[in-house]
Drug/metabolite transporter (DMT)-like permease
Amino acid sequence: MKKGIMLAIASAFTFSIMNVFVKAASETIPVSEIVFFRSVIGAVIIFYLMKRTGITFSKKGVPMLMLRGMLGALYLLAYFFTIAHIPLGDASILAHLSPFFAVILSVIFLKEGMSKRMYILFPIFTLGAVLLVNPMSYDSYTVYALVGVLSAFLAACAATSIRYLSSRHHGYEIVFYFLAAGTIVSIPLMWNEFVMPSFSGWIYLICIGVVSLVGQLVLTSAFTHENVIVVEVVRYIGIFFNVMWGFLFWDETLSIYSIMGGVLIIGASIALSRQRVPAVPKPVSN
């Protein structure tokens, strides 16, 4: 097996482990607090790496860097909230709507053309999302699933901004702004609901911060060894990992609607990824 493919699988596996820690921590710790510790731990590590490698902060393009950071922070809040309230498998499938949104956003903001294939896949993505959200149920799950769709949209916004920034700034700097924004945004949100973590809670929080950063570094390495499209397709194995963890630790199962919606989204995403267009940016950090 090629090294790039092995790294892509490893990154998907690593992020799925992060999701397990997030879901476990969310049982006793508010989501905003989880985002804070996830962000501050990663920010400290990235800042250390920047100092060690001699990378300095840019004086130009700061507003765009701050916007990227804010979008990433809001994505984290929405995604962790989704993981905390619905099965890991469902949350993972909803997250894979981000390539679809990324294509739409790239057309609007980056002036990149939309292919005929995208027009064909548009209703498939929409139907898949509708089946996953299941609006006819009119229960709390619908709200949580809608937040999951929002997280995919925010991830696409962040990815679009990264595509714009990647040719102007070092990756470490872009990631630092993302984590710094997550730290700042989460402070007021957790101010009145802060919970002193137990010993196991501290373990979960530290693991979330470290594991998520390791996953990002492994994913970055995968892109240096293998084609972006190949890595994108291989990373869909992460859905299987999340479903597996959900079944093993929380006895979660997917409904028939989730399975149908997941098949449509995954199939359409793979079809979209197989097309060599610049509209689908590299994935961002989870």
